[in-house]
Design goal:
Layout lengths: L2 E7 L9 H7 L3 E9 L2 H4 L15 H20 L5 E3 L4 H11 L2 E6 L5 H16 L3 E3 L9 H7 L8 H7 L51 H11 L3 H6 L19 H5 L5 H13 L11 H17 L21 H8 L6 H13 L4 H14 L5 H11 L5 H11 L16 H6 L4 H6 L19 H6 L15 H37 L16
Parallel strand pairs: 1-2, 1-4, 2-3, 4-5
The protein binds a DNA duplex (15 and 15 nucleotides) through α7, α12, α15 and α21.
Length: 531
DNA sequence: GTGCAGGTTGTGCGG
DNA sequence: ACCGCACAACCTGCA
């Protein structure tokens, strides 16, 4: 019997290698309703936020999403369909309403492993099951199904990259067949259907002078960018992530495909296959973890651990996270967030984040280390929130995973290795081109002082039209003192965590609750592991 | 239980 | 430009 199908887009904003779309168009589908629901959780303007955008989403990522939707709509129209953009509150509520109203018999959507997505999808799934609607919900955002990997590993997520790589084999191939036409859209009845809105239509009319992200959203752009990135076979075969230049911004040192993977404008399986084809014809090529394929596997690794770890996005109640007594200094946090730390390398990166919504991986490391275990000793969750909001590629699993990593809270523990906020950038960009671009106030500072402008004689500052303390801030901390202090605190925190040990952890906590003591507070004992 | 190797991406120095 | 090593020393995985 013929029925109506609904294809629910959330991520996976693409036509190529889209199993949900493939399934929706097949079989006895009479009418196909391709739907995207605007989620107020991410899109409701928040005028009190520290920069243009909503509470959870900066303007650049909203724009990226809208461009991706417009591109998707265009592609669907070429296939005889269109994108039905809906609004009206919580996406699960909206979806349940249209499932009823449009007499949907088959619901297709890509599986989502994030907690927010799971809660949302469970509500819809429950309704659909109870209503006898067929559900097809394939895993196609990632190469592997995190649940499968965890099962393979005996029920626990692998906690090192190497063990993860050993565990997984080859990912499934992307769908080879091209979609050439789609069933027509059905009658939407009374329902209000929007075209893909503009920023203005979403209520972001009064954005001041902002330098916008140079990266445009959408599947077409993703495939174009992929093609360009893979043009040089030699570049692909020799790619080594740690050797990239974090200060390169005219032509970034990486592919910048992360935002397209985040929204699913690009299929990770297609990306993987494209790289493999180049490897096949190359004499030699680099390997994980540093290779290009290795980067895709890092994504998988974090998706898997994030899926299998309760409270992955917080320190408390997170089994794999070191309990560290981070400080809570709102003023220092604000300086970091606004690019006002007085360290040009740090501030330029934070400005790039605000303006572009993208920075090189190692630039992210620099500022994350500085905020947490390197200098300010501020909670990684605070930095995570800022990145999550402003990055165009912000991805729940990967962002949290990297903050855990950088703050030495999990995965990585060599807390004495601290990025210098002055010397690290200088290695790559001795004349300070990156700083001059993103911090124009320093554009005439001589290169001898560009990384430490507070050391410039006043005459030099005057000549450069930049008085330190007036036009550009003095450093908010002394890196030498602050980093030494941080190392000491990390050592104490580690000792305390080891003291608690896995088995003792729960018991001690219960006990401390009775005693009204908090073991998460400043540790007193400086001791080695006590078994 | 113990010891050892390895860990995408620190810095500073010498070659 | 690129390597190796010392520095001081963390954790996890495995034998």
């Amino acid at each position: 019997m013929e029925s109506n199908a609904l294809l629910w887009f959330r991520k996976g904003l693409r036509i190529h290698d889209n199993p949900a779309l493939d399934h929706a168009r097949r079989g006895a589908t009479r009418r196909l309703f391709p739907v995207f629901v605007l989620d107020p959780r991410y899109l409701e303007p928040d005028p009190t936020a520290f920069s243009p955008g909503s509470a959870r989403c900066g303007i650049n990522r909203i724009q990226f999403l809208l461009e991706s939707l417009a591109d998707l709509d265009g592609s669907l129209r070429r296939l005889g369909s269109r994108l039905l953009v809906l609004r009206g509150g919580d996406p699960a509520d909206v979806l349940i309403r249209v499932l009823k109203e449009w007499k949907i018999g088959k619901l297709c959507y890509e599986a989502d492993t994030e907690p927010y997505g799971q809660a949302r999808d469970n509500r819809v799934r429950e309704f659909a099951s109870a209503s006898g609607i067929e559900i097809f919900s394939p895993v196609s955002h990632t190469l592997f199904d995190p649940a499968d990997v965890i099962q393979k590993n005996g029920g626990k997520p692998p906690l090192t990259y190497q063990s993860f790589v050993k565990l997984v084999g080859q990912p499934p191939s992307p769908i080879a067949q091209r979609v050439t036409s789609l069933p027509p859209v059905g009658d939407v009845g009374e329902y209000e259907i929007l075209g893909v809105p503009t920023l203005q239509e979403l209520g972001y009319g009064d954005i001041g002078q902002v330098e916008f992200s140079p990266f445009r959203g959408g599947e077409s752009e993703a495939l174009k960018r992929l093609k360009e990135s893979l043009t040089s076979k030699e570049w692909v075969a020799n790619f080594e992530k740690p050797k990239g230049d974090p200060s390169a911004f005219i032509k970034p040192a990486t592919t910048v495909l992360s935002p397209y993977l985040k929204f699913g404008c690009l299929s990770s399986r297609y990306f993987y296959q494209s790289i493999q084809e180049i490897y096949k014809n190359a004499k030699r090529h680099t390997s994980p973890p540093v290779s290009l394929v290795g980067q895709l596997l890092w994504r998988e690794f974090f998706y898997t651990v994030a899926f299998g770890t309760p409270n992955f996005d917080q320190m408390r109640e997170n089994k794999i996270c070191k309990q560290i007594p981070w400080s809570n200094d709102e003023k220092l946090l604000a300086s970091w967030r606004e690019g006002q730390t007085g360290f040009p390398w740090i501030d330029a990166i934070m400005v790039q984040l605000q303006k572009w919504g993208w920075m090189h991986h190692l630039a992210r490391h620099s500022v994350a280390c500085f905020l947490t275990r390197g200098d300010l000793f501020i909670h990684w969750e605070k930095g995570r929130d800022v990145f999550e909001r402003l990055l165009i590629d912000s991805d729940w699993a990967i962002n949290n995973g990297n903050w855990l990593w950088l703050s030495c809270s999990s995965f990585f523990y060599q807390y004495h290795r601290i990025y210098s906020p002055t010397k690290f950038g200088k290695k790559y960009d001795p004349t300070g081109k990156f700083i001059r671009h993103f911090l124009p106030v320093l554009k005439d500072m001589p290169k001898e002082y560009i990384y430490e402008p507070w050391t410039a004689p006043l005459s030099v500052q005057k000549k450069a039209n930049c008085i330190i303390g007036k036009d550009y801030p003095r450093p908010i901390v002394s890196h030498d003192t602050a980093s030494k202090e941080c190392k000491k605190k990390m050592g104490e925190a580690y000792a305390f965590n080891n003291l608690l040990g896995d088995a003792n952890w729960k018991r001690l906590r219960e006990k401390s609750e009775k005693d009204k003591l908090d073991p998460g507070r400043r540790p007193r004992l400086k001791q080695k592991r006590l078994g």
